[in-house]
Amino acid sequence: METIKNDEELKAHLMMAHPEFRMFFEQHHEFELRLNDLEAKAHLNDDEQMEEVRLKKLKLHSKDRMLEIMSRYRMEHVPV
Q: Which of 1, 5, 43, 59 is found 20 to 30 A from 78 (Cα to Cα)?
């Protein structure tokens, strides 16, 4: 059985082996890109400010789900 030593190795493994993790990872990345576009603007109008808040919440949700999957994987694959 493969031993996963750190978070980066676990993420790489889950990206290949866990479609749900991959989906949340890709969403998180997309939200980050969209937030970067907004943050690059000198001033945000009201709609853009609301979009920024919405994207931050969605990005956090994606990260929470990835961490949940990582935690569950670790618990299920503890070496005996």
A: 59
Structure tokens belonging to residue 70? 């990582």
CA–CA gap between residue 17 and residue 38 (Å, rounded): 33
Pair 70, 11: CB distance under 8 Å? yes
Give pLDDT, residue 78: 75
- Angle (CA) 27-33-35 rounded to 5° is 100
Q: Quick one: which H or E segment has residue 40?
A: none
> What is the per-residue pLDDT for 61?
98
Query: Rg for the chain (alpha carbons), in Å?
Result: 16
Q: pLDDT (tens digit, 9 = 90+) per residue, 7-20? A: 999 999 999 999 99
In contact, 35 and 42? CB cutoff 8 Å: no
Q: Encoding tokens for residue 36? A: 């970067």
Position 1 pLDDT exceeds 60: no
